[in-house]
Amino acid sequence: MEAMERATKFCHESLVIQTHRVFPMDLNIFGTLFGGKLMAIIDDTASISVSRHCRRGAVTASTDKLDFLHPIYENHSVCVETFISGVGSKSMEVFAKVMGEVLATGERYLAATCFMTFVAVPTHMNEETEFIVPLVKPQTEEEIFVCSGYEDRRKHRLKELAFNEKFAESVSFDPPWMETESR
Predict the structure, then answer these.
(1) Rounded Cα gap, residues 45 and 32, in angstroms
(2) Which domain does 20 fall in, by range?
(3) What is the pLDDT of residues 75-100, one digit of tens each?
(4) Does residue 93 contact residue 52 with C-beta atoms inside 8 Å?
């Protein structure tokens, strides 16, 4: 059987931009955008980048260190941009950049950044069982900078995953309302 050449896509082919106005119902008790709401927007946006890149079903495997850099206030906009920044054979790293905008003045600011990892899985979206995620090729200065750190981030994630799997072996999953000898 002859090996197929692995497809390559540009970062911009997976670019997704979602913009939302921040309403009172989106705020935490401090009057800024609730972090969980932002995390949901980021995950949704990133999932579309993944689908554009691999055209397969995929699930979120991890969210790396979401850094909240600047609060986003009521009546500002929140703009989430995502694109594929690195790939394994079945996994895809997604870079997320969150920009806030003061709608009254047009002032924009970097509100958050993070990397997420998704893994392609068999679903109703794809019938073929043999599949390798297309490679990704950066073009802009920002894409080149973001993608250049992929291998180091991947190694770090794999090390953390091994630690977390070992750690999970020592964590109780007994129902907290039941008395056990291990408590």
Answers:
(1) 21
(2) 8-123+130-168
(3) 999 999 999 999 999 999 999 999 99
(4) no
